[in-house]
Amino acid sequence: MIQDELSKLRLKLIAITLAFSFIPLFSLGLGLYNRFYETYLDKVYESLSNLVENKKITIDLYLSERVAQLSNLALTESYPDLVKDAYLEHIFGVLQMHSKSFLDLQVIDQNGICTAYVGPYQLKGIDYSREDWFHKVMAKGIHVSDVFLGFRKYPHFNIAVSRREGDKTWVLRAAIDSDIFDSLVRSIHLGKTGDAFILAADHVLQTKPRFGYAMFDTMNFPNVPRFSGTRVESLAIDGQTSLYAMTWLNHKDWLLVVKDDPREELLPIMRARWLLILLLAGGTVLIIGGAVWVANGTVSALVRAEREKATLDASLTQSSKMAALGKLAAGVAHEVNNPLAIIMEKAGWMRDLLSEEDIKDSPNFQEFEDAVAKIEFHVRRAKDVTHRLLGFARRMEPTQEDLDVNMLLDQTRSFLENEASFRGITFINDYQRDMPRIASDASQLQQVFLNIMDNAIDAIDKNGAITVTTRALPDSGDVDSALADTGTGMSKEAMDKIFDPFFTTKKVGEGTGLGLTISYSIIEKLGGHIHVTSEEGQGTTFHITLPVGA
Predict the structure, then answer these.
(1) Second CATH level (architecture) for the domain 269-393
(2) Is-same-fold flag (181-268; 401-546)?
(3) How far apart are CA 270 and CA 384, in angstroms?
(4) What's the rounded mean pLDDT across residues 487-511?
């Protein structure tokens, strides 16, 4: 029952320690990780947003410069001058000096007929009146086409601007090299799996991505309504989830997209997560080990305290028994001695009467004489018991003598050698020869040794041995005397009561049950302690420990 309670207490202590340790540990760890995760994710999103915003500014600036060059040329030059091949070629050379992006230059009249051209192809005289871009530039003044191959079979896009001169409107149109434009997009510094591209409004690629698609492919991209600024989203496209930073260009319905692998960008977060897991695992092991260690230490300390309390309670109980017994013994001895004296006196008078002649002739004389003898014998025996009680009740203070415990044991053993020899019992001495001398009461110690040796002889009965051992205890320096017999031993129940008054393991009429009680009292008064170990069928050993300076 006690073991169950201690096990429950140990588990409760461990559970409480773990709870009060893990809750703040995991709360702090997870809180810091979530804060780091959110901050780092915001930083990644902000970085991608800034990247696509900066690239948008560069591309818009590139387009604005090309449009501005054509617009300035259309505003500063007249139609009659530009339709002259030589002059147009001169103007085209000036343009290429400022930008290598221009592939050719066309002048188109208000009817959509190319009236002048400079470039690698023969486009003069081509009719553009049915083309959508021609109607758009005539209506809006500026038109930027999507990237296409055309008859050139080379990716490019056109910029066209219109000017009204007098009562006529004419168009200046130039083809722009897509490679230079494409390099602007591909110059974005990305990781191993990152990508950047431009999508037209119908999801047709205007630049060549690094992975998966070719230019002019229609990409499986979600519809994104036109918005201002930049946007960063996590999208699953073609079964792969990535981060996409997007922004619409100002001069064209083109969506600039920067794609990044979240695993690559979030690698520091993954490392931080594993580091946190390792730290939490290590902390968990340390906390569990510490909790178990603290719980075991606390329970062990509690067990020791309980044992010490039980020992103290037993000692106090024994002391209380001895004090009560002293009072009881004095009262009993005085009360019993008076009737015993009267009984002894009457028994003597009866013996005197039996000595008369007329009574001697009685046929029952012998029975009367035996009865008187038994009365006298038992009265003397009772008086001997009361004498012991009075001796115990007087509580004489011990005297201080310089004693050799080995010599005192030899002297005590000599009193019992004849009886032991008669019963076939031998004494075996195992003395420490350099034993320190003690200051104690020789007569009272001898009484204790004599009582224990006499009990050992009775326990053995016949044919056995009594081993007397003396040692100086190394820790305290106290003197320990052990008297071990080869008798029948005692049960645990008997050992618990062995120092109780009037308890005896001897047969009825052979013991008073006071010898060990008095011995216990004597040793306690001398400043030592006595304890016994025994097993049934294995004999009994009494240990008497006395301080050197008692």
Answers:
(1) Orthogonal Bundle (1.10)
(2) no
(3) 93
(4) 72
